[in-house]
Specification:
Length: about 160
């Protein structure tokens, strides 16, 4: 897939996620309340959406790690940063780049056995924690919905 298309897709996903998180921060600063809704389930859904937005941003930013129109350029730059500017002087065709989407990884393997990772180290842990937050908030929303429904039902029976 073209690196330009990957970058465009990452930005199209990251922009709404960033806008939602920015709106949540502005709301928090303006009202000093973390949640916009006041029902039993609404705050849990908002928190799950915020965690999902964090996961989308982490995935998008991690996917842009090592993005360049010439794929080997970030590999050479990262190697020069880690091992010094004179560390590699052979043709770019010898560099093998392998990518994975989950866990995110983009590894440049050089012919001398050296390899460098282009995806930032914080990306995958943040992605896992954010997805766990989505699951936990989903469970909280279901529990809050069932407890509010059962309390309404008990109030009608009495």
């Amino acid at each position: 897939m073209s690196p330009i298309l990957v970058a465009a897709a990452a930005l199209l996903l990251a922009l709404p996620a960033g806008a939602f998180l920015l709106a949540k921060v502005v709301h928090l600063l303006a009202t000093r309340r973390p949640d916009m809704s006041r029902g039993a389930v609404g705050p849990w859904v908002e928190r799950a959406a915020a965690c999902l937005c964090v996961a989308v941003l982490a995935f998008a930013l991690g996917g842009l790690g090592g993005f360049d129109s010439r794929p080997t350029r970030p590999c050479l730059a990262e190697r020069a940063e880690q091992f010094g500017p004179q560390s590699y002087r052979t043709p770019d065709n010898d560099i093998k780049i392998t990518s994975r989407y989950f866990p995110q990884s983009k590894v440049c393997a050089f012919p001398d056995g050296t390899s460098v990772e282009l995806v930032p180290g914080w990306t995958n842990p943040l992605l896992v924690v954010a997805l766990a937050g989505v699951a936990a908030c989903g469970v909280g929303a279901v529990r809050a919905g069932s407890s509010s429904r059962s309390s309404r039902t008990a109030g009608q029976r009495a």
